[in-house]
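Action item from last week, closing it out:
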Amino acid sequence: MRKIAVMNQKGGVGKTTTSVNLAAGLAMRGKRVCLIDLDPQAHASLHVGVEIVGDTPSVYHAFAGAPMAQVKRLVAPNLWLVPASIDLAAAEVELADTPGRELILRESVSAMLAAEQFDYLIMDCPPSLGVLTINALSCAEEVLIPLEPHFFALHGLSKLLETTALVTRRLNRKLRVGGIVLCMFETGTRLAADVSADLQAFLSGSDPQAPWAKARLFNARIRRNIKLAEAPSFGRPIFDYAPKCPGSLDYMQLVEETIAMEVPALQLAAAA
């Protein structure tokens, strides 16, 4: 099983779009996938047509002690969702003095997985580096970073990697950066090409002991596409909303690359 946190402290870079469409694409390929929405804005939940009202169970209740197995719901074949709600915004404050607050999600997920197995766990992190994101990093084994190809995105990447390294040292020795996916890509522009080259050079020259030493820059480039912006308002992943649009083709390429990464992992496990 692969546990992936989709993370970027900057909003508007395609993080939730990537979380939802990666999860939906993997489910379409026959993988059992659980998508956990950790953003109080609940955009991942809305993207798959789920809106929490009243006291309907959400991931907030899982942080409060409710079994996650009672919170998740089937939203498509092979795809389960642990939805979020605005109540999750209070978790940052409510957990401030709670011992072991960084590990609550990991313990809740472990209890759920004891009863039901998945091939992938995809966690959509909020656009911040607070306690919710730290919980996701403590639970995950891989980090996927959606990045918009411009200078300020590169500048913010160092903070993301620093946070990942800190969590690896203190909370989760298994955590590694799996890869970076470029979103809102404008084909043919000099800036996009330069950023891609800079990223590849940085990853190639990384310290072999760093958590991002084996990270890859995905070949999939998620191009700017109006259909990707429209799909959430209809509560549907891009593969259902506009299966032939460039956004759908780009995300399916990302899905195929993600699945291809399973082979080295299986070989490594067999060798061990």
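Closing note: Strands lie at 2-6, 33-37, 73-76, 79-82, 120-124, 142-147, 176-185, 216-223.
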